[in-house]
Design goal:
The structure holds two protein chains of two kinds. Chain A has helices at residues 18-29, 67-77, 84-103, 136-159, 228-235, 267-270, 300-306, 322-334, 354-360, 362-372, 427-450, 459-474, 481-495, 502-519, 532-556, 574-577, 603-606, 611-614, 620-635; strands at 5-8, 11-14, 34-37, 54-55, 118-119, 129-130, 166-169, 172-180, 183-191, 197-201, 204-207, 240-241, 246-253, 274-276, 344-347, 381-390, 393-394, 408-410, 579-585, 591-597. Chain A is α/β, with parallel strands linked by helices. Classes of the chains: A alpha/beta, B alpha+beta.
Chain lengths: 636, 257
């Protein structure tokens, strides 16, 4: 084990996207020595892909907005399955987190009176997304990156070393978390450039590894999204919540085939873009579900009037939450009313002048021109659903981001609960900031409670982590990781995709079990330095275990809600709403599943909703409980 | 489906060579798709750095037929496929393996520039800026840090010796971005000239030409910065100060964190 680099830190943050950087900044600001582990180069994380904006009820565009309205929208979007405390913290704290970015140098688009401009987005009652054109994620990652640099400059002055207190380990992957008894003691991994192994001795690990999209064939996610944090948490004894809730973004590119899945921002619709089928019909009017009937326009005229006069018109149905729009597109294509490449048409070209389109949606204009030879100012885009986000994730404490394992924290996409069964656009960037900071603080508090009693890494654990990482090189025979990856993606896409049924998911679980055996004998060729084949071989076992969790939970939940649609159980069930599905791993490495009650919403929060709306989601018993709360309130 | 001939640089820091491959190409594909197919079918350990595959992260910078490009945004249909397509790593930076370079130079340079320095009395949430005032810096903040501009800049492209004194277009643009930020209070003009080597730039616009984000680096960042530096140098008060032995107030190096 002589070739293992050893580092010792107070806090190790795995992931350098929005949540990871915000967590690391917080830990460092609280005086802790912090390491940031980045699977890619610093500043390249998947957060750069976020286009629309960060939702925060600053009320700059409409003064009626406040955190309660944002909370309500978030719960509605999540179909009442959100962890209510997380949704509350998120709505309350998002404005401060956005303002903070501005103080660190971010340059958001402005309102006429010089404040941060806010844009409309699906499911948000008021214009709420702080944005920079359609490249808000880039602005956010750059701002956080530059904040880290700023802190390093201060540390250079104080300690003579910019990396004395916060250091980025770029192109480094963690393959295993190590424990001392029940507690986190370290993180083991490799450095991409050399293939050298590295051990971080640390009592506190914050997972901020993002999502799982690379388990699916058609996805908007980058290569890093292999469910590393989900799998690390499982293997360390943590639990995952509601992994069946996977968001298929309604608008991904569908042509040319090589770019299938790349995201087309929801801002296109927020700014006036409309969806049409091959007959030229704005079909979304046919798909407004009962639970949303009251808030959405019934005619094109009313819908078009909303952009200029939202007080007197209802919202266009193109701005329904993402799950609704994705399913509608899927239905249109299935009914034979799709576009030539198997999507539907998203048109902005007839909705505003070309210059306006280029000013508001520069990235989209560029993306279609370069990749598809389509000028979106002149013709419609072809779009279809793409795997975009996982609502499920590590089960954490809302206030601190603490997972069930002492010393383990999670924030951002890898954490579960915040978004319920469906995430609203714009709530991701704000989630990263709010819960990134909270997980950083949680790790600091945990550290302080430990005192001097730091957990230690056992040599035997280190040896087995190393052996596991090297195994793909040791095997004489075995399969090519790329071929196995493609099979896994096809399986998930075909059998656990946007519309699900029991027989297919059972088939998927069988296929995954077979793949598991084959992945156990996957091989890597070549040397250890910068070897993508080896890296994929190691990532595969994470994707596989995550896929198994998704399929298992999806088979269990016999209802349709948000990012989980069952052909065989098409209705939403008030009984199922109360049930969280909790996945774990037993000592044989098999996925376990149990049911657990969803936290009930506090009285002052549940009464933000009208009875008419609550009755669509709650059981009779729950509704009576709300009545009692309302009466008590009146009595006071 | 058709076949294309690729000539890919394989090797590590020490040495390497161009290796020929014949590989399948499908409609609409970009160079990165073809490199991925090479990995999947012929050479699983081919080192390629990439992330988003949508031109947003700036990871897959390389030289395609000698031109600095993002592999994810270079469509096969735009290349002459009658000749083998040469794919080589960025020339300005040391090679780690195959098509992957060590770009740490850029992170070192980034850390030398004094950070955003707002007036400490302005609290978060109190910033008021007009759209037309933020627009100039916003253009530079479109930068995806692909470092193609750094790679193509002749000051360092074949001149390792200039790297110490020259931060390159990307970071001179970062200086311009901060200088034009409506809420920034620091002055980096002297440092731009003396520490980051703005004077080395003789505005040949190579950086602007290769920028995948179409940022007008030379016209909107570098030339205006040169003008600002000149204005400062010939500012009568600064000149007088230097005559009476007082150094002009320098850019604060320690950020007000």
């Amino acid at each position: 084990m002589s070739d293992i680099q050893r580092h010792s830190y107070d806090v190790v943050v795995i992931g350098a996207g929005g949540a990871g950087l915000r967590a690391a900044i917080e830990a460092r600001q609280q005086g802790k020595r912090t390491a940031i582990i980045s699977k890619s180069l610093f500043g390249k994380a998947h957060t750069v892909m976020a286009e629309g904006g960060a939702a925060a009820s600053m009320g700059n565009a409409n003064p009626n907005d406040n955190w309660q309205v944002h909370f309500r929208d978030t719960i509605r979007g999540g179909k009442f399955m959100n962890n209510p405390r997380m949704a509350e913290l998120h709505a309350v704290e998002a404005p401060d987190r956005v303002y903070e970015l501005e103080a660190w140098g971010a340059l958001f688009d402005r309102t006429k009176d010089g404040k941060i401009s806010q844009r409309n987005f699906g499911g948000h009652e008021y214009p709420r997304l702080a944005h920079v054109g359609d490249r808000t994620g880039l602005e956010m990652i750059r701002t956080l990156q530059q904040r880290v640099v700023q802190l390093q400059q201060a540390d250079a002055e104080e300690h003579g070393d910019p990396e004395a207190m916060i250091k980025v380990f770029a192109e480094t992957t963690i393959t295993e978390l190590l424990k001392d008894g029940e507690k986190i003691a370290g993180a083991f991994g490799y450095i991409r450039e050399t293939g050298a192994f590295v051990l971080f001795e640390t009592p506190a690990v914050v997972l901020a590894t993002g999502g799982i999209g690379k388990s699916f064939k058609v996805t908007s996610n980058s290569w890093e999204y292999t469910g590393d944090g989900h799998a690390l948490a499982l293997r360390a004894g943590g639990t995952l919540l509601n992994m069946e809730f996977v968001q298929f973004h309604p608008t991904g590119m569908v042509w040319p085939p090589s770019v299938k899945g790349i995201l087309v921002t929801e801002s296109v619709r927020g700014d006036g873009g409309v969806l049409r089928n091959s007959e030229g019909k704005r079909f979304m009017f046919d798909y407004v579900p009962d639970v949303f009937r009251k808030q959405y326009a019934e005619t094109e005229e009313e819908a078009d009037g909303w952009y200029a006069d939202p007080e007197n018109n209802r919202r266009p149905p193109e701005l329904l939450p993402r799950d609704e729009v994705a399913r509608s597109i899927n239905s249109e294509v299935k009914a034979g009313r799709g576009s030539p490449a198997g999507g539907v048409f998203l048109d902005i070209s007839t909705r505003m002048p070309a210059e306006e389109i280029i000013r508001r949606l520069p990235s989209m204009h560029h993306q279609f021109k370069e990749l598809a030879d389509v000028d979106i100012t002149k013709e419609p885009m072809e779009v279809g659903p793409t795997c975009h986000y996982v609502m499920g994730g590590v089960e954490v404490d809302a206030d601190t981001g603490a997972a069930l394992v002492p010393g383990l924290f999670a924030a951002g996409e890898v954490a579960g609960g915040m978004h319920g069964s469906n995430r609203l656009g714009g709530n991701s960037l704000s989630d990263l900031l709010v819960f990134g900071r909270r997980a950083g603080l949680g790790a600091v508090e945990y550290l302080d409670s430990l005192g001097d009693a730091r957990p230690a890494v056992a040599d035997a654990d280190l040896e087995s982590a190393q052996a596991e990482a090297l195994a793909p090189f040791e095997r004489e025979t075995g399969e090519n990781p790329y071929a196995l990856h493609q099979e896994l993606q096809q399986t998930m896409n075909d059998l656990v995709g946007i519309i699900r049924k029991a027989s297919e998911m059972e088939q998927a679980l069988e296929a995954l079990a077979k793949l598991k055996e084959r992945v156990a004998s996957v091989t890597a060729e070549g040397g250890r330095a910068y070897n993508p084949g080896w890296h994929l071989a190691l990532d595969l076992r994470n994707m596989l275990i995550v896929s198994e969790c998704i399929a298992k939970a999806a088979l269990e939940r016999e209802e349709s809600r948000g990012g989980h649609t069952r052909d065989d159980y098409p209705e939403m069930s008030a009984e199922w709403r109360k049930v969280n599905l909790v996945l774990g791993m037993n000592d044989k490495g098999a996925v376990t599943l149990r049911r657990q009650d969803l936290d009930t919403m506090r009285g002052d929060l549940v009464t933000l909703f009208e009875d008419d709306e609550l009755k669509k989601y709650l059981t009779d018993e729950e509704q009576s409980a709300v009545q009692r709360i309302r009466e008590t309130e009146k009595g006071e | 489906m058709s076949k294309a001939k690729f000539r890919v640089w394989r090797g590590d820091a020490g040495e390497g060579e161009l290796v020929d491959y014949t590989v399948e190409v499908n409609e609409g594909e970009v160079v990165l798709d073809v490199l991925h197919r090479l990995q999947a079918t012929q050479t699983p350990d081919l080192a390629v750095r990439w992330n988003c595959k949508a031109g947003k992260c700036g990871s897959c910078s390389m030289e395609i037929n000698g031109r600095p490009r993002l592999a994810c945004m270079t469509r096969m249909s735009t290349l002459d496929q009658s000749e083998p397509i040469a794919v080589t790593p960025l020339r300005t930076f040391p090679v780690i393996r195959d098509l992957v370079c060590d770009v740490s130079y850029n992170y070192v340079k980034a850390r030398q520039i004094p950070s955003f320095t707002p007036d400490p009395s302005v609290k978060p949430g109190e910033f008021r800026m007009q759209q037309e005032d933020v627009q100039r810096s916003q253009e530079f903040r479109r930068c995806i840090e692909c470092y193609l501009c750094q790679n193509v800049c002749h000051v360092i492209r074949d001149h390792e010796e200039n790297k110490e004194a020259f931060s390159g277009p990307r970071f001179l643009m970062r200086v311009a971005e901060l200088e034009m930020h409506p809420a920034d209070t620091a002055d980096r003009r002297l440092a731009a000239q003396e520490d980051y080597g703005l004077g080395y730039c003789n505005i040949t616009k190579c950086c602007t030409e290769v920028c995948p984000e179409h940022i007008k680096i030379t016209d909107n960042a570098l030339i205006p910065m040169k003008e600002r530096v000149a204005t400062r140098k010939y500012d009568p008060l600064v000149w007088l100060g230097s005559k009476i032995g007082r150094r002009p107030a320098d850019t604060p190096k320690v950020p007000n964190t």
